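Forum: Protein Structure Q&A
Topic: Joint prediction for protein chains with partners

I've read a bunch of threads here and the consensus seems to be that you should model interacting components together rather than docking separate models afterwards. I'd like to see that in practice. Below is the full input, 1366 residues plus whatever partners are listed. Could one of the regulars post the assembled result?
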Amino acid sequence: MTDSKYFTTTKKGEIFELKAELNSDKKEKKKEAVKKVIASMTVGKDVSALFPDVVNCMQTDNLELKKLVYLYLMNYAKSQPDMAIMAVNTFVKDCEDPNPLIRALAVRTMGCIRVDKITEYLCEPLRKCLKDEDPYVRKTAAVCVAKLHDINAQLVEDQGFLDTLKDLISDSNPMVVANAVAALSEIAESHPNSNLLDLNPQTINKLLTALNECTEWGQIFILDCLANYTPRDDRESQSICERVTPRLSHANSAVVLSAVKVLMKFMEMLPKDLDYYGTLLKKLAPPLVTLLSAEPELQYVALRNINLIVQKRPEILKHEMKVFFVKYNDPIYVKLEKLDIMIRLASQANIAQVLAELKEYATEVDVDFVRKAVRAIGRCAIKVEQSAERCVSTLLDLIQTKVNYVVQEAIVVIKDIFRKYPNKYESVIATLCENLDSLDEPEARAAMIWIVGEYAERIDNADELLESFLEGFHDESTQVQLQLLTAIVKLFLKKPTETQELVQQVLSLATQDSDNPDLRDRGYIYWRLLSTDPVAAKEVVLAEKPLISEETDLIEPTLLEELICHIGTLASVYHKPPSAFVEGSRGVQHRRIPPRAGSVESAESPEVGQSGSSEAPPAVIPSQGDLLGDLLNLDLAPPTATVPSVQPSMQMGAMDLLGGGLDSLLGGDIGGSPSMGAGLGAAPTVMPAALGGAPAVGGGLGDLFDLGGGVGMPTGFYVVPKTLWLPAMKAKGLEISGTFARRGGIIQMDMSLTNKAMSVMTDFAIQFNRNSFGMAPAGPLQVLTPLSPNQTIDVSLPLSTNGPVMKMEPLNNLQVAVKNNIDVFYFSCQFPLSLLFVEDGKMERQVFLATWKDIPNDNEAQFQIKDVHLNSDAASNKLQGSNIFTIAKRTVEGQDMLYQSIKLTNSIWVLAEMRVQTGNPNYTLSIKCRAPEVCQFVYQCYEMVLKN
Amino acid sequence: MIHSLFLINNGGDLFLEKHWKSVISRSVCDYFFEAREKAVEPDNVPPVIRTPHHYLINIYREKIFFVSVIQTEVPPLFVIEFLHRIAETFQDYFGECSETIIKDNVVIVYELLEEMLDNGFPLATESNILKELIRPPTILRSMVNTITGSSNVGETLPTGQLSTIPWRRAGVKYTNNEAYFDVVEEIDAILDKSGTTVFAEIQGVIDACVKMSGMPDLTLSFMNPRLLDDVSFHPCVRYKRWESERVISFIPPDGNFQLMSYHISAQNLVAIPVYVKQNISFFETGSSGRLDITVGPKQTMGKTVECLVVTVHMPKVVLSANLNATQGTYNYDPVTKILLWDIGKLNPQKLPNLKGSLSLQSGAPKPEENPSLNIDLKIQQLAISGLKVNRLDMYGEKYKPFKGVKYVTKAGKFQVRT
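Posted by a regular:
Agreed with the consensus. Here's the joint model:
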């Protein structure tokens, strides 16, 4: 007797048959019929036509039948909302049933029926169930609130269910607590700014107590919730850690990983010299190793997370290299992850072991894996200098195998080794050249060509070799073509006499016969260089290259930190910040590791200090893939400034300032907020301005004296004069001009609304599109009186930066919609980035130094600020008014170097070095930031502030 | 949380779907099929697949893909653990977890899934609670049900559901009270060509079968608990006692369960019970090769090695094998390229040997990769780590239970490189 009988059909038509059976008098027959319906439903057949018949079976004492009908209802109620109402009465009755199982079942099912009319009836029974005497009902009701919130969030808030849910966190039953936490967490995710999970020491204590007694799944919810808490001090942090540690021995790996997350985060707060800190570090290793003996899917997620942990705290797993050795029957996705971690853990102590393993992998069957193993050998060579020689000889052994793809990968990595250790291993070039013919992949060909070009003087037949590549020039990929062009030019510069013909050939191929603009451009540049100034050409093309760094693929420290706070989540699997996920990002806030307790802070700065002080890589080349692009840069662009084009918004501002803009500036600002210093930009010495700026700066005043010789008051935030944003023509008579200001730490949008139409305007409202920095109105647009014709009103709208984020082009673009009684109008405007410079943007000197070193040189941008007639102190004062803080000043050969830091509202740090030469009105500004796209806009702010 | 679940068989047929929130079209599985195709081998399908609007988290068990759909940020391990739990529950209920058996019991499966998850939150996953809510099918019960019309759904709230020991129901009664423990150890090892250990570790579990009346409180102690540096316990085990006294103190669930698992890592000395002398070589010319494998005992602690099986994954170009085994039988499958040599019991006096020639596809070049050997074996009455149970004490009940401990050692992922 199996359920497969439910799938058999008869000739008369299944639905017809079922209908008859559902309406049968016999209970047993009814039940069988409902089972058949369910069976059809599970395989995706449409049985919605039977809705009334199935619902009729709902009124029954038989629990199994009732459950089956409920199952059906949940699936089809949405398609038949009117019919679903028929079920409401039974639900409401069941919620009063003496049997808690039935009460819970009813409230649970009602929550799953996503029909508005039903949800209305749900509120009363749900309220009762949330306070039910039976914990089983309460815990079911808690989840039901989350369901209801998903269907109708407003209703849940209006009915006060959220508060009841919060009360359940203090419930006496741990299972109820766990479900309440789970429900609240889910609701909070769609409510970014709500303070739903208001964690304080009391609630934390309750959660920790419930943690010991609830189910494994409940433990996961509670641990994930704990991870969001920031302890007040190291003592609290330690006590939470102590109570979480036993979870590391749980059989459920998700519990273990969530516990690891809490510990990794809170550990940051513990002083490093504490005994407990060391104990905790030791305790973390075994559970992580155990995760690797679970099912492969679990291993995969664990490995992705271990990859993060190893980057953050290599000491935890440094002795566990062997557990990452690859077993031949591991799935490929596990193999690749293990390999990655092996390289991260490789050190001088274990390199011999690692190399032996990698060599073994290079003879495996799976091609992808073999390739990655060969690459790994190269990465080891670059990472552990002492092993380089051994790595090279291993690679040579592998080349001897003549296995095509192994040889190609080996050549690609040997090129990197050459770049890391120049003039050391060139003896192997001869061996490489032997394999020239077998190279058929572009990357390997390009690598080989690079080697030939770079060492042309040591390879006797370099010209022949390159010429052989040139034969099929047009069939090569762009990568190879570019490389070949550069290599031949190098060869020519080294051996000009024999290769003149060759270089002419390649230049004409690149410039005349190619459609590729990159190739043509590079060809022309070389051509011109060679024809005008061969000496300069030599300097450019054969310039000394910066060394490539040890770790080419480390995750950026700020991102790593954020990911550590998200261990165990999807973000940690993809190694991307949660905000990068479109769907799931609604409510994710950036999480940061709390700073360490005071005792050690001075010695080592919490965030950047570790990575910065231990090893400051000389230069970083982002990734292997970009290498070619970099080579191009190396060849062509010595670090001179690229002068950026000024953004249109800037020009607008400047123009307006000249023509009558001052009046509107004064008028506008007085209207908006009379207390604030209006013409700050125009009159920097006005006292109110200084007052306006000073409190916001916080410790700024003290710092000023620190600088030595800081004369005068810091000026306030420079406000750009109002510009016309929305012309009356486009908006049925409504004209809007406006500007942005930052006053006392609050961002404000000052607008003048003018009614140029004939009728009165009322009901103003404003909304922003998503934008790069999450700016959003912090309150409604306050236009209290109707705007009569020809009247102008000034409003000041406070803005927050917690809104939804979406990258805009340009970065500082803001799209605004304004509504009135006539219509909705759209316009876009650009705000000065200085709006987002926060008041606590002054970095510690040590941190500044470390961070500066830490940010790759590629992220540095240089700008010229022309015609500024200020000395360096005055300039730094002026900048401070806009929250650009000077941290240190150095004078070298009559040149003042100002080191400055800026912090944006989204916690991005921008570091700058400004060079001011006495008597020279042109400043040189170098800006470094982990998000290089902001540099341009920061520069604009400098220009704007200094020139006004 | 978990939004929907799709069950897909090895052939790519979607044979069951269940939604816990709104219904998600099964077309979302197209992304899975794409990944499935790319992976070639079913084992290699990545566990987390990103689609424009959802994430698909899947596991592959018993030739079935369990594909779950999630929409918000959810810990993937939580989902994967849960999917495995579903598979285990099916195993527990129906004795196996296969497409046929799921289809045969589709209504119970549906009821179970509904009971295990509510709105994507786990509801009841403990086997004994589920069994009180939905009785597992037995031939007898389904007969009785059809005759009497009674149902297989429990009508009362399961007792364990809300107590602080949710894993045990109240009022358990047995005429014979018994507690059996199986200490099972698996050796995961990689040996290199010369027989030296590259890596070795022991994965141990203690499976228990406890059938005792009332609420017995058990304490299990070991002769040498220091061996265990890394343990994971069933939720019933009191962690504090383990921390302070190194004993396992617990109120057991009723029936079969895994009490604990442990892991003895590569740092400790892991005994390797057998050695393998092998020589597999291919000739440059003549499209042939030679194979010679001998297995012998190494550290067996005086016990007999049983169920010895050697598996060799041959390179693709190997067409057939002409071998001679001194003991056991061998079989070469030219389709999967797997050579299987079933030896049976290992006799230390007369070592088993497999020797002969391999013929290769004519004209094909000499294979590039080295085949690797996999060893399977079993040793009864031995825990290779040396772990020994000292005694089992019971408190809280008056009767005297039968007690027993069994040890067995097996090969896990035991690989010999050539």
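The longest strand of chain B covers residues 197-211.
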